[in-house]
Amino acid sequence: MKSKLLIRGSVLVIQTAIFPYYLLFLKNIGETYSAFSLLYALFALSSAACFYALTWIPHQIPMNRMYSISLFGLGVSMISVPLAVNIFHVSLIQCFMGIFQALYKLSEKEFDKKDKLSWRKENIHQFILQLIIVASILGAGFIFDWFSVHMLFYLAGAWYMVNSWLALKRNRAK
Predict the structure, then answer these.
(1) Range of the domain at 154
(2) DSSP string, 6-30
(3) Do 36 and 26 touch, CB atoms closer than 8 A?
(4) Coil vs helix vs strand at 9
(5) Based on the structure, what is the number of domains in the chain?
(6) Mind listing the pLDDT tens digit for each residue in 121-165?
(7) Whose CA is closest to 71, among 170, 169, 162, 174?
(8) CATH number at residue 139
(9) d(CA 79, CA 126)
(10) What's the pTM?
C-alpha cells in the first residue's frame, strides 16, 4: 500500500511540476493558438480513443503490468519532448502521451477498486501530496532558471521510468 501511494504521489508530482512548462513548450512549437489547441486536443483525443478501445479488448493484460508499461511509456514520451523539432513530432508525442495516460488512469482506478481506500485516508494523502506538489512546482521553476527547460523534461522522463521500475518491483514482491 505504501509503495503504491509513493508511486502515485511521485507521478502526480511529476505531472503537476512539468505541466506549466509543457504548455509553454507546446505554445512555442505551435506558434499560433489554434496549433497549440490542436496539439493539446490530440492528447485528449488519443486518451479518449484508448479508453474506448480498451472497452472492446478483454482484460488479458494484468493491471500491474499495464501500470508499469504506462509509466515507462510516459517516461519515454517525456524524454522525447526536447528531441521534437517540428509540430508533427510533437503531435506524435501527444498521441502517445494520451494513450499512456489513459492506461495509467485505468490501472489507478482498478487499484482503487481493489484496495477499497477510505475517503478520509485518501483526503489526508491528497493534502500532503498537494503540499509536496507546491514545493515541486517552485523547485521546477528554479531548475528552469538554472538549466534549460529540456533538463526538466529529461528529469521528468527519468522519474517516470524510476516509478515504472518501482511498480514492477512492487508487483514481484507480492
Answers:
(1) 2-173
(2) HHHHHHHHHHHHHHHHHHHHHHHHH
(3) yes
(4) helix
(5) 1
(6) 666 666 666 677 667 767 766 766 777 767 778 888 888 888 888
(7) 162
(8) 1.20.1250.20
(9) 27
(10) 0.69
